[in-house]
């Protein structure tokens, strides 16, 4: 696992730019599927992936992961998409926040959604379940996991908001930030031109394509 830590400034920039811009800036790769959503639309998360592979309906490894977690980590948990138990709730949230964990991404369900939303801890999941879990089954920590069609390696940077989630390799973060800032600047110019009468078809050079399909 790469122990490098991204700076607070880098984290703030990534959070402001957002998942969609980051995804496009790194060549339209790294996006999670749309089935993993925030439990509150205002939630945003950026941090270093602490990956956890757990058995369905058992959260023993989540308790263990919080013994190893560091400030700036985001727990990225493969619960195998199991939806009939909520292995994460308000008590684990309290411990995670005390440690300085930035958020949770889980391929599965959680519970205590209202309590978690009230304290502002970012949680991205497939859905909710009030059903409890056992604490008997071992799993794996800091191993590559695949969630919703994307592989996340320990130490990767994850960015999440209402639009979705994207993973960025740690050694590519600085380059991706620069490309994302350039993309943002270009879009700002487009918006200004649109306010002054330009059209998206014109700005994106779509006229010939539209003519080819006899749409103009």
What this model shows, in words?
This protein has 216 residues and is α/β, with parallel strands linked by helices. It is 35% helix and 22% strand. Helix 3 links the parallel strand 2 and strand 3. Helix 1 crosses helix 6 and helix 2 crosses helix 6 (173-195). The relative contact order is 0.21. Its cofactor is Mg(2+); a divalent metal cation. Keywords: Magnesium, Metal-binding. InterPro entries: RraA/RraA-like, RraA/RraA-like_sf.
Per CATH, the superfamily of the largest domain is Ribonuclease E inhibitor RraA/RraA-like
CATH class division of the largest domain: Alpha Beta
Sheet/helix structural class: alpha/beta
Kindly report how far apart the N and C termini lie. Answer: 54 Å
Indicate the percent of residues in helices. Answer: 25-40%
Q: Name the beta content range.
A: 15-25%
- Average pLDDT works out at 96
User: Order of SSEs, N→C?
Assistant: HHEEHEHEEHEEEEEEEHHH
**Total individual domains:** 2
Backbone CA Rg:
20 Å
CATH architecture of the largest domain: 3-Layer(bba) Sandwich
InterPro entries: RraA/RraA-like, RraA/RraA-like_sf
Pfam families: RraA-like
Binding site for Mg(2+): 112
Binding site for substrate: 89-92, 111
Summarize the structure in short.
By secondary structure, the chain is an alpha/beta fold. It folds into two domains: 8-170, Glucose Oxidase, domain 1, CATH 3.50.30; 178-212, no CATH class. Helices cover 35% and strands 22% of the residues.
């Amino acid at each position: 696992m790469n122990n490098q830590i991204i700076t607070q400034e880098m984290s703030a920039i990534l959070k402001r730019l957002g998942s969609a811009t980051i995804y496009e800036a790194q060549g339209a790769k790294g996006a999670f599927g749309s089935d993993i959503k925030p439990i509150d639309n205002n939630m945003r998360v950026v941090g270093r992936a602490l990956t956890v592979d757990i058995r369905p309906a058992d959260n023993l490894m989540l308790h263990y992961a919080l013994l190893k977690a560091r400030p700036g980590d985001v727990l990225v948990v493969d619960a195998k998409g199991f939806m009939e138990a909520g292995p994460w709730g308000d008590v684990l949230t309290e411990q995670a926040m005390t440690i300085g964990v930035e958020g949770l991404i889980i391929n599965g369900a959680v519970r205590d959604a209202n309590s978690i939303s009230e304290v502002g801890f970012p949680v991205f999941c497939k859905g909710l379940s009030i059903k409890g879990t056992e604490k008997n089954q071992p799993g794996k920590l800091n191993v590559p996991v695949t969630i919703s069609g994307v592989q996340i390696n320990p130490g990767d940077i994850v960015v999440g908001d209402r639009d979705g989630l994207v993973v960025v390799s740690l050694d590519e973060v600085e380059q991706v930030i620069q490309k994302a800032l350039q993309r943002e600047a270009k879009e700002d110019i487009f918006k200004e031109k649109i306010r002054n009468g330009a059209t998206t078809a014109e700005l994106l050079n779509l006229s010939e394509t539209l003519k080819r399909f006899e749409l103009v």
